[in-house]
User: Fold this.
Amino acid sequence: QSVLTQPPSASGTPGQRVTISCSGSSSNTGSKTVNWYQQLPGTAPKLLIYSNNQRPSGVPDRFSGSKSGTSASLAISGLQFEDEADYYCAAWDDSLNGLYVFGAGTKVTVL
Amino acid sequence: QVQLVESGGGLVKPGGSLRLSCAASGFTFSDYYMSWIRQAPGKGLEWVSYISTSGSTIYYADSVKGRFTISRDNAKNSLYLQMNSLRAEDTAVYYCARVQHSGPDYWGRGTLVTVSS
Assistant:
């Protein structure tokens, strides 16, 4: 069972906006910044959003992140077929002796 | 550009050992914390261990504590994971990742470890 809670799946049609939630606690998302990772089928995870809402160079601005309290969210606007992937939220956790915790992942399907 | 290339994975029997390596390039290796993260087949991501720039600070997930040892050689730009007393539940793709203040940023492609008799 993951420390951070994400919905197992989300879907949308091309062009739609999809939002993925990530819920944690005061020891992780409540006090630490949140990263989001995208894992395309058969590939390694890639950093999509860091420090709650920052995009690394090369990540399209269709992807955006936000955080409020102990919850974070990832939004994909203008959904494209190439966005079909697993998305993971993650954060450091103060209560787990230096460990970095992940959500279980959300499978995004483009219909 | 940043490159991380893992090696050393393979098939090993329960109770056996394996040593993973990660060759880093494209950045000043000695300036960054480094980590190992694994993903069991069809499952999510699990943080395994990380090591500070000098190797003086090390953390392990409870699931591997006492069995796995992380180390690094800054002169060789390399990260290692010595895995002993392997169990079936250690079967996973093991990723090497560079660690920033906010968390891992660059990841390698991973190396598959299969523990089976």
